[in-house]
Amino acid sequence: MKHLLSRRALLLSGGAALGLAACSGNTASSAAETDNAGNADKYADSKWRNLTNAEWRDQLSEPAFNVLRREDTERAFTSPLNKENGEGTYHCAGCDLALFSSGTKFDSGTGWPSFWDALPGALGTRPDRKLIYVRTEYHCARCLGHQGHVFEDGPAPTGLRYCNNGVALTFKLA
């Protein structure tokens, strides 16, 4: 995937860009920014962007805090959501924004819940250069919580694999 934004910017599905104040657990900028087409970040003034690390710690389990706010990764094959096959929606465990439909979930064999598409406007992406190669990291568009990485080795129709940390999600039956 082509990376067009710097480490301090996040490209949202639907085109809006967000300024980040070092998204790894720090409070993000609340100033609304726009993309090249002038689309504003609809979550820029969200209360979720202003929570402190202490407030996040009070709200989240330690594993969820480490993934969502510190961009950690849970161990593969540990999430009960790997075996979830019900009809419903997967939400951000931080702010409860709906991110994925169960209709896009598939078993990638990787040990993490995987999806071939996200709900419109639910995610933002940016390059992740923590390893030898560049990956595409994605976050919840509302609270900027780290979810996982997206790869171009998924099934049709998109060819994408959103590889999500299960601890960063909740599932709600339809």
UniProtKB/TrEMBL annotation:
> Is Oxidoreductase among the key words of this record?
yes
Recite the lineage of the species.
Bacteria, Pseudomonadati, Pseudomonadota, Alphaproteobacteria, Hyphomonadales
Pfam families from the xrefs? Answer: SelR
Q: What is this protein called?
A: peptide-methionine (R)-S-oxide reductase
Q: What's its EC?
A: 1.8.4.12
Q: Which GO terms describe its cellular component?
A: cytoplasm
InterPro entries of this UniProt entry? Met_Sox_Rdtase_MsrB, Met_Sox_Rdtase_MsrB_dom, Mss4-like_sf, TAT_signal
- Catalysed reactions listed for this entry: L-methionyl-[protein] + [thioredoxin]-disulfide + H2O = L-methionyl-(R)-S-oxide-[protein] + [thioredoxin]-dithiol
Which biological process, per GO, is one annotated for this protein? Answer: response to oxidative stress
Keyword list (alphabetical) reads: Oxidoreductase
